[in-house]
């Protein structure tokens, strides 16, 4: 009888996704999903080796609105990672929930609507930071430099491949 109860429990855990870590991880401070994307609110942001002012500053982010991925939380500190995979601890007051993306393809075409056959409204250079709007399975709406349009999600960093935004 015990063996069948154990098997039933394992099956239930597998179906729920717990056994493989498929459940959404939540930050212990904010209860928001981890990882998640944010942007740098300040013009400069110190990136520290650990989550306190006593930890050494490893470098300084110097691009306002740069997209960052939060991968951990500790008190008022968020462990972030950038598009290059570099990261460290940043005080939460330097971060914003406003979503931006980094263009990872040179001369990325912005289309008037989602779809390859749609008219091109602008082209964005490699490294441009754009404000993120709605996203479908394959396309995201962007705004940068006074231009708006839709771009392929695969050419952007700062949005999850399976993320849908409305």
Structure at a glance:
This protein has 166 residues and is mainly beta. It is built from one helix and 16 strands.
Characteristics:
166 residues; mainly beta; five-stranded antiparallel β-sheet; 1 helix; 43% strand; elongated; disordered N terminus
Can you offer a commentary on this structure?
It contains one helix and 16 strands. It has a five-stranded antiparallel β-sheet with strand order 8-7-6-3-9, with no helix packed on it. It has a five-stranded antiparallel β-sheet with strand order 15-14-13-10-16, with no helix packed on it. A two-stranded antiparallel ribbon has the order 1-2. It starts with a helix and ends in a 9-residue tail after the last strand. By secondary structure, it is mainly β. Residues 1-23 have low confidence and may be disordered. Helices cover 9% and strands 43% of the residues.
H/E order of the elements?
HEEEEEEEEEEEEEEEE
Specify the structural class: mainly beta
In round numbers, the mean pLDDT is 89
End-to-end C-alpha gap: 49 Å
- Helix percentage range: under 10%
Number of strands: 16
Sheet with most strands: strand arrangement: 8-7-6-3-9
Overall 3D geometry?
Answer: elongated
Number of helices: 1
Describe the main β-sheet briefly.
5 strands, antiparallel
Please tell me how large the radius of gyration is. 20 Å
Poorly predicted parts: 1-23
How much strand content do the residues show? 35-45%
